[in-house]
Design goal:
Bound molecules: 4-(methylsulfanyl)-2-oxobutanoic acid, nickel (II) ion
Number of domains: 1
Structural class: alpha+beta
Mean pLDDT: 96
CATH topology: Jelly Rolls
Strand content: 25-35%
Shape: globular
CATH class: Mainly Beta
Helix content: 10-25%
Distance between the termini: 23 Å
CATH superfamily: Jelly Rolls
Number of strands: 10
Largest sheet: 8 strands, antiparallel
Number of helices: 4
Length: 180
């Protein structure tokens, strides 16, 4: 499964570095599921013809799809874009990303507002729920090819933190089971 860990937030290191705590504190898929983060491992070589992907898309209504290459050479205003991606935000809808090549980090906030770093690699399909605070960065490989999925006409609008009054945020908090 995907590797995920609590981040060391005290060091002002490069955002592309893993930033493990010392000692390392790994995060289980079950804990991610409690936060509403879902995950599948698929065959990235077969994405155009994959019955499993097709089923997920049908079950969840993901009729929109596009592909995105993210690296310094291919993205206009690369620095600005990456800065925006790494600014903590929410969306009114799920964020669905399928990694086809390369790798990258999604950071999500847990129930206690700690950062969890999720390392996605080729074959990882991840769904972040609407209303979860998150951010994104490339790792030191500096390259990722992502499939973006969406229900209907895509809306990519990022609402930067704080968003405690946003309906998607309120709904997310309401559904979060906080007892441990
Ligand atoms: C977003 O909302 O686009 C992100 O969180 C960045 C990851 S996908 C390029
Ligand atoms: Ni986002």
């Amino acid at each position: 499964h995907m590797q995920a860990w609590f981040m060391d937030e005290t060091s002002g290191e490069d955002q592309r570095l893993p930033r493990h705590c010392y000692p390392k504190e790994l995060v289980s898929p079950d804990y991610l599921a409690e936060l509403g983060v879902l995950y599948w491992r698929l065959n990235p070589e077969n994405y155009e013809n994959d019955a499993e992907l097709k089923k997920i898309r049908e079950d969840r209504g993901y009729n929109y799809m596009d592909l995105l290459d993210i690296c310094p050479e291919k993205v206009a205003d690369f620095k600005e874009k990456l800065k925006n991606f790494y600014t903590e935000h929410i969306h009114a809808d799920e964020e669905i990303r399928y990694c086809l090549e390369g790798s990258a980090y999604f950071d999500v906030r847990d129930k206690d507002d700690r950062w969890i770093r999720i390392w996605i690699k080729a074959g990882d399909l991840i769904i972040l729920p609407a209303g979860i605070y998150h951010r994104f960065t490339l790792d030191t490989g500096d390259y990722v090819k992502l499939m973006r999925l969406f229900v209907g006409e895509p809306v990519w609008t990022a609402h930067n933190r704080p968003q405690e009054d946003h309906p998607a945020r309120k709904e997310y908090i309401k559904n979060l089971v906080t007892e441990k």
